[in-house]
Amino acid sequence: MKVECKPFLQERTIETTGAGDTFMGCMLHGVLENGLEDLNEAKLLEMLTVANAGASLITTKKGVLKVMPTEEEIRALIGQGR
User: Fold this and answer.
1) Phi and psi of 68, rounded to 5°?
2) Is the pLDDT of residue 63 over 90?
3) Phi-psi region for residue 3, left (φ > 0), alpha (ψ -120 to 50) or beta?
4) pTM tops 0.90, yes or no
């Protein structure tokens, strides 16, 4: 199965520290929420979309842990960009 997701490019990027960790954290959260047994293209696309949005948001703030986006912030960005 191959699934691709468009990135959320930020004009306000100021620091990329933590983007990869945020992406992986969001993906792991998706795995814990959904499991792997019934993973299909739609679920994987949703997980990738959330992970891309989360990683994109963290690049707009200085620091890492204190600026980790909330699920609400991620969902808001997804709603704006799609």
Assistant:
1) -55, 125
2) no
3) beta
4) no
> What does the alpha-carbon distance between residue 15 and residue 1 come to, in Å, rounded to a whole number?
33
Long-range contacts formed by 62-70: CB under 8 A, 24+ apart: 62/14, 62/15, 63/15, 63/17, 63/18, 64/17, 64/18, 64/21, 65/18, 67/18, 68/18, 68/22, 68/25, 69/22
Q: Per-residue b/e over 29-49, b at no fewer than 16 CB within 10 Å?
A: ebeeeeeeeeeeeebbebbbb
> Which helix (H) or strand (E) segment is 30 a member of?
helix 19-34
- Give percent of the chain above pLDDT 90: 66
